[in-house]
Write a structure and sequence with these properties.
The chain is globular, with a radius of gyration of 25 Å. It has 351 residues and is an alpha/beta fold. The protein has helices at residues 2-28, 82-88, 107-113, 120-126, 140-150, 204-207, 260-276, 299-304, 327-339, and strands at 42-45, 48-51, 56-58, 98-100, 129-134, 157-159, 165-167, 173-175, 185-190, 208-210, 216-218, 244-248, 251-255, 307-310, 348-350.
Length: 351
Amino acid sequence: MQNLKSLFRFSIAVSGLGMVILVNGCATAPRVGSFAPRKGDEIVVAGRYVHTGTPVVLWTDPGGYDAYRVERRFAPMDKADWKTTQEEIENFSSPNRYNARKSGLTDEEVERVRGGGWDLPTLQKVVDQFVLHYDVCGTSRQCFKVLHDLRCLSVHFMLDLDGTIYQTLDLKERAWHATTSNSRSVGIEIANMGAYGNEEAKPLVEWYEQDTHGTTLITIPERFGDGGIRTPNFLGIPARNEPVKGVVQGRELTQYDFTPEQYKALAHLTAALCKVLPQIKCDYPRDAEGKLISHKLPDDELQKYQGVIGHYHIQTNKTDPGPALDWDKVIGHARRLMGEADTGLGHMRKR
């Protein structure tokens, strides 16, 4: 009898514990209609959030830049539609500024993903390059205006002077930024006025000046207003005070360096991309001595190359990201981030 009473009390205790777990579990579960805010450092890869550890503004965020939209972003609303755009802008052949990745996929895979059904393993199979550009626009806002409104082009990311990264498309999309590498690459436009030969007229005088202490400052011309920079009262200072000279495509060019904020953000983004898309090796094109190659890669080498790459490695008529980019700074920092434990760079969650 005593054993039966003990068994009964044990059963009641277990039942009560189950009720506590049930009640507590319900209390911690997401409530219907509740919001799940982003942390603000995620990029979107095949519909999933991937943390980068640096500020990111998505096309879905307030103040973002949406390359999925057909209408021109900066035209008056009554003239921004596709029909008026065709009438006002030459050489606009499509309302879209991007299309679907198909290279490297079977016919069955193309049919599966063409409606948006991308999964991460499929994307990992086809993307193996991260292409760096300078925008020759000075700010990301002006860059999006030129690409989207005037040139019918696109890019996955833009990196502003203050280090803010803007993502305009999911990485599953084939952006139009690097001709023969579009199908296999992710692209970024870095805010910078570019590199110039001695014989060229330079906009650098308008965009850079020295203060009374001899420090070089980035001076956004008045016609661009505040430039759309998100950081209030941001003061842009190149990472190196003096203009950088170097040879690209066999030409000596001069360029002001990128900002420290841009270098930091670019390293974080590079590390995140190399982790989540592992065919992008965390390195840049090197010669037999391990030095940076500063001209277009031969077609056979470009076809085989997997990693971080400049626009000038892809096309002979391009010089971006220019002689000022410190490749070792970017790649070295990115590698350290990839090697750190529990960085969260590989953490993903469904959108």
